[in-house]
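User: Reviewer 2 asked us to show a designed sequence for the structure in our supplementary figure. I'm pasting the structure tokens here. Could you produce the per-position amino acids so we can include them in the response letter?
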């Protein structure tokens, strides 16, 4: 099963991983026809661009599917199984695709089970939870929070991974340990076998039904159970290996832990990586949440000493003990929030991040004593103490959580990041960790980083690796052979602790388990999946070199996204995720385009990809940058999209954009006139006439410049702004041009206008504002920046810098604007300013109206009455600025209840993109609309005019600025 002692000549060279030309026409016709009989055309993805964008997960492997199906319901899963068997084409399930080991990809039918498989139902007052497999794990905990409980697994990818993936890989995490993983907390499952049999293990008579419908499988399970229990050595080996974290191979402990075939099979499905059946629903027992914490970062002179001190913390009841070697500490030592001491550590030092937890405040004092007693005899580089202060705790965790970010961001261009996890017996962890570092050095991985869940002996390590030459592939192959021998044979550990076996460790399952255990695993696979259609090559693989096959190259690309490791953390926050592509997929597609270009003459696949890339990847990108906040390496895919938009502009287009910027005051007047004319036409002829006219204009002109008329298009704003005085003004008020153009929504009162409301509130608080007479023609420059018009962006950015400096008397007064996206845009103008204007900019204090109201006005206002409830939409700019909590606080001051939809994110309107591509807004807001449907709110509030238009269009609710309601309730 292995290739011990392999030389570079023994291992295959890097096969070209460009998408094959035979799929340049998309899914083969016969397969597409077969699938079309099962799946609605809207959920059957057959274009080349669709196949390529689903060809990667978070691992360093890459397989191109022949078709992608967005399955909806158990009935379709059963039919897909039948289709797969008839066609002899394998089938792989994929949810979030955050897998680090290649389990979420295949070269057959890829079945996406995330979009239509979401749902959380809390039961037993939070004691258990019923979950669909496509539900993001963090969303489950959000629903459980009110009950003071949480699911047991706590993987680092919890904000992106789904419950289906957690179950499939038996994921754990930093505090989960062995006892709280999915295997130990699953109560029941509903699963679908490849035969089409559906079983709800909690249903009355489920055991009997299982035996009646699947007699061969049930009898086979009984036979395997008897064999395992009769083999004393094998049974003892199984019991010993599952006292530590272990996800290598199938969970053979189920044969010892449970008696009935259904209970055995239920638990065998946990960690089976989609190779035995499809899990359609799970009921999990929860554990108490422990919100009170004591945390410390302890620094030791060397790695061995740090590891040797783990057992005392484990025995003292620490919930988390995270190891960080010197390389990992060095990778984060310059990051904001990281204690300065770390930069001064000597080579070889190591740290333990230790946390104790309690369910109530009364337990903290006792934990302080336990923690102090535990560290008293330890040899530390610097004295340490445990803190209950959230700010300090956040700094400590910044060290651990910033690690993946830093290593991934620093990898050389063209390399892949490999994150693996192994488990050593805790009492031998110190020696094992030192031997692992020696192994790195022997194979030339000087940059190797070790960290992980040391309390459980579970170490993660990070390597950067090229796969573009046979020599590099051979080096990695030899390293993996020695790693398997070190962990499994020398230390009796586990080759996988929590990420599932995957493709990287599949050739080494027998190295760890031996032939008898692997024979049991093979027989189990044959019993459950006799045709071998489910996720072949994962867990068990006949190829001794499977770990170095289907390797993914990382061609150097534009610097804005070159650091992407394709982990998928960005996808849950992307507004176009259910419409076209996600940030990860935009990058995956770009890399494939570069691979195809490297082949020479334009290939059919390249032609197909470039044909669809403009709309799918560029025009439907909102450019909101929320992906940057979710990305482990801080990539804002919007900057890449802006580069492509900029590169696509002709000299004429740039000239026109510059002229529009130069004449922006006139453009504002024209826009208001067009809105007035439009509203008059709509009132007499109806919206359909205007919709038809604008659609015709888009057909004739540029559909990326000519906006659509929407039923939600507001009236024109008043041409005159409210009168204000410069004398005695506490701040300068710069009404954003979107609020100088767009007025009230249909059915809403025209007065007060937003500027009138803000002026009134500021006056009422005793901090009057002044609106300069020459605000017309000034803008934050965001419209030009987002569309990639360089000259227009620079012209407008410098104009506002010059005027703002003059208005504020050289920065003596703050500049307040009333649209959050514009306020955020102003902050980003500095790189486009002349040196003189950069100095002026640096003297300015720029405030969003949210900051202005929360920090300065609200404490001076009297709220005369409150409303029952408000629905709040914190816009993307507030998330980027870190001020969404301020908007929540304002809302809490004027409403008894504040509801933010759990899926709240970018509305997809994105300035004018909602006028150009309303389908983007419709898709982005659909989840929020569903969540709002169950809440009757008095008011619907936000802080950005175009986002309010988008939210109204998407949800049907009358969103408006929070300032209006604040003004009304403080009269």
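Assistant: Here is a per-position design you can include in the supplement:
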């Amino acid at each position: 099963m292995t290739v011990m002692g392999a030389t570079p000549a023994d291992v295959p060279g890097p096969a070209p991983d460009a998408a094959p030309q035979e799929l340049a026409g998309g899914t083969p016709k016969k397969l597409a026809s077969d699938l079309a009989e099962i799946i609605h055309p809207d959920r059957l993805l057959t274009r080349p661009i669709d196949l390529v964008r689903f060809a990667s997960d978070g691992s360093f492997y890459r397989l191109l599917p022949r078709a992608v199906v967005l399955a909806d319901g158990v009935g379709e899963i059963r039919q897909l199984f039948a289709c797969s068997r008839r066609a002899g084409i394998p089938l792989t399930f994929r949810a979030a695709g955050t897998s680090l080991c290649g389990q979420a990809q295949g070269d057959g039918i890829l079945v996406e089970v995330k979009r239509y498989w979401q749902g959380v139902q809390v039961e037993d007052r939070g004691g258990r939870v019923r979950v669909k497999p496509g539900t993001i794990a963090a969303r489950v905990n959000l629903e459980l929070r009110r009950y003071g409980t949480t699911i047991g697994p706590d993987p680092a990818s919890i904000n992106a991974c789904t419950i289906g993936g957690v179950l499939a890989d038996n994921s754990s995490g930093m505090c989960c340990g062995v006892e709280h993983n999915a295997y130990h907390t699953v109560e029941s499952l509903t699963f679908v076998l490849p035969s089409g049999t559906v079983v709800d293990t909690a249903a009355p008579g489920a055991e009997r039904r299982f035996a009646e419908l699947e007699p061969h499988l049930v009898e086979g399970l009984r036979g395997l159970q008897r064999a395992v229990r009769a083999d004393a050595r094998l049974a003892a080996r199984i019991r010993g290996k599952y006292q530590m974290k272990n996800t290598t191979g199938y969970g053979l402990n189920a044969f010892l832990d449970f008696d009935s075939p259904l209970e055995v099979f239920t638990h065998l499905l946990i960690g089976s990586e989609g190779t035995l059946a499809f899990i359609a629903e799970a009921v999990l027992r929860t554990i108490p949440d422990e919100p009170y914490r004591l945390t410390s970062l302890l620094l030791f002179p060397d790695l061995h000493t740090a590891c040797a001190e783990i057992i005392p913390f484990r025995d003292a009841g620490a919930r988390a003990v995270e190891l960080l070697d010197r390389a990992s500490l060095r990778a984060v030592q310059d990051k904001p929030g990281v204690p300065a001491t770390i930069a001064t550590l000597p080579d070889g030092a190591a740290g333990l991040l230790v946390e104790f937890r309690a369910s109530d405040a009364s337990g903290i004092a006792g934990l302080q004593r336990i923690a102090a007693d535990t560290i008293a005899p330890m040899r530390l580089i610097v004295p340490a103490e445990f803190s209950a202060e959230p700010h300090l705790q956040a700094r400590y965790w910044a060290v651990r959580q910033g690690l993946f970010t830093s290593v991934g961001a620093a990898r050389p261009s063209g390399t892949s990041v490999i994150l693996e996890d192994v488990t050593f017996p805790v009492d031998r962890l110190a020696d094992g960790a030192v031997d692992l570092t020696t192994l790195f050095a022997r194979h030339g991985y000087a940059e190797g980083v070790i960290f992980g869940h040391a309390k459980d002996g579970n170490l993660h390590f990070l390597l950067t690796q090229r796969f573009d030459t046979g020599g590099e592939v051979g080096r990695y192959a030899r390293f993996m052979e020695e790693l398997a021998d070190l962990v499994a044979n020398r230390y009796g550990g586990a080759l996988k602790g929590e990420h599932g076996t995957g493709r990287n460790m599949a050739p080494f399952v027998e190295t760890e388990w031996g032939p008898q255990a692997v024979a049991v695993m093979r027989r189990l696979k044959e019993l459950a999946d006799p045709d071998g259609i489910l996720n072949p090559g994962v867990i068990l693989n006949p190829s001794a070199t499977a770990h170095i096959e289907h390797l993914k190259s990382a061609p150097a690309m534009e610097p804005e996204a070159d650091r992407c490791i394709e982990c998928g953390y960005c996808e849950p926050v992307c507004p176009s995720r259910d419409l076209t592509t996600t940030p990860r997929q935009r990058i995956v597609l770009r890399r494939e385009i570069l691979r195809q270009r490297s082949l020479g003459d334009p290939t059919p696949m390249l032609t197909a990809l470039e044909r669809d890339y403009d709309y799918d990847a560029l025009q439907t990108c909102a450019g909101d940058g929320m992906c940057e906040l979710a990305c482990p390496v801080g990539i804002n895919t919007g900057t890449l999209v802006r580069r492509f938009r900029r590169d696509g502009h002709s000299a004429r287009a740039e000239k026109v954009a510059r002229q529009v910027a130069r004449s922006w005051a006139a453009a504002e007047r024209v826009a208001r006139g067009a809105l007035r004319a439009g509203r008059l036409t709509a009132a007499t002829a109806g919206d359909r006439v205007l919709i038809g006219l604008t659609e015709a204009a888009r057909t004739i002109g540029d559909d990326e410049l000519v906006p659509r008329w929407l039923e939600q298009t507001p009236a024109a704003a008043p041409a005159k702004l409210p009168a204000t005085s410069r004398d005695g003004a506490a701040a300068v008020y710069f009404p954003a041009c979107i609020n100088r153009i767009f007025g009230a929504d249909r059915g809403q009162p025209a007065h007060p206008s937003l500027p009138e409301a803000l002026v009134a509130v500021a006056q009422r608080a005793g901090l009057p504002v002044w609106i300069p007479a020459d605000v017309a023609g000034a803008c934050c420059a965001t419209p030009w920046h987002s569309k990639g018009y360089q000259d227009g962006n620079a012209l407008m950015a410098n104009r506002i810098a010059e005027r703002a400096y003059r208005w504020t008397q050289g920065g003596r007064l703050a500049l307040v604007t009333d649209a959050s996206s514009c306020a955020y845009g102003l902050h980003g103008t500095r790189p486009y300013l002349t040196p003189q204007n950069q100095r002026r900019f640096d003297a300015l204090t720029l405030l969003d109206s949210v900051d202005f109201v929360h920090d300065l006005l609200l404490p001076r206002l009297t709220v005369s009455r409150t409303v029952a409830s408000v629905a709040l939409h914190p816009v993307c700019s507030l998330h980027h600025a870190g001020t969404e909590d301020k908007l929540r606080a304002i809302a809490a001051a004027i409403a008894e209840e504040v509801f933010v939809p759990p899926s709240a994110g970018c509305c997809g309107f994105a300035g004018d993109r909602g006028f150009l591509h309303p389908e983007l807004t419709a898709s982005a807001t659909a989840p929020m609309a569903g969540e709002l449907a169950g809440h009757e709110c008095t008011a619907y509030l936000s802080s950005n005019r175009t986002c309010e238009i988008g939210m109204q269009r998407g949800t049907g609710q009358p969103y408006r600025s929070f300032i209006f309601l604040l003004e009304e309730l403080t009269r």
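For the response letter, you might also mention the following. Residues 1-14 have pLDDT under 50 and may be disordered. The radius of gyration is 30 Å.
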